[in-house]
Amino acid sequence: MYLAKNLIRFNLKTSDNVLRWLPRILCIIAILFISLFAWDSFSPYRTFWQNMATLMVNLIPSFVLLAVLIIAWKWEKAGGIILVIISLILFIFVFKLNYERTHSIGTSFIITLILDIPFVLSGILFLRSHFRRKKELSGV
């Protein structure tokens, strides 16, 4: 009986840790993935400083997402809400941009989902973690 209680306690603690760390890790990986697209800003026809300036401009979305991640790390509820809202805005913007380039709804939708799902999922997981922790603290 003692072993069963400790095993259940261990499983609950493990699932809490997974729920706490999964959105953070997923968001970091998604930000790194988005940041990879900035590397195509380099051109051999520009100077070093022009290339650095272009790179910094292309990394602005990554910096914004990093700031949101920092907020979510400290305040899970606020960060989760902001991530979900940003991902909805990102969905509309990226879909429109890809549709103008490809004129294909299917291709635009798939590309947008690939870029957007990690942020929506991270936001939802941050919110879930917040409400689960709040429920634990209230003793319900």
Can you walk through the features of this model?
The protein is mainly alpha-helical and 140 residues long. Helix 3 runs antiparallel to helix 4 and helix 4 runs antiparallel to helix 5. The protein contains 5 helices and no strands. Helices cover 87% and strands 0% of the residues. The chain has one domain. The protein is globular and about 60 Å long. The mean pLDDT is 86.
Helix content percent band: over 70%
* Poorly predicted parts: none
DSSP E strands, number:
0
Distance linking N and C termini: 24 Å
The structural class is mainly alpha
Number of domains: 1
Mass-distribution shape: globular
Compute the average pLDDT: 86
The Cα radius of gyration reads 20 Å
> H/E series, N to C?
HHHHH
Main sheet specs: none
User: Helical stretch count?
Assistant: 5
| Strand residues, percent | under 5%
What labels would you give this structure?
140 residues, single chain, mainly alpha, 5 helices, 87% helix
Summarize the model shown.
With 140 residues, this protein is an all-alpha fold.
Helices and strands in order:
Elements: H1 2-36, H2 48-58, H3 60-74, H4 76-102, H5 105-138
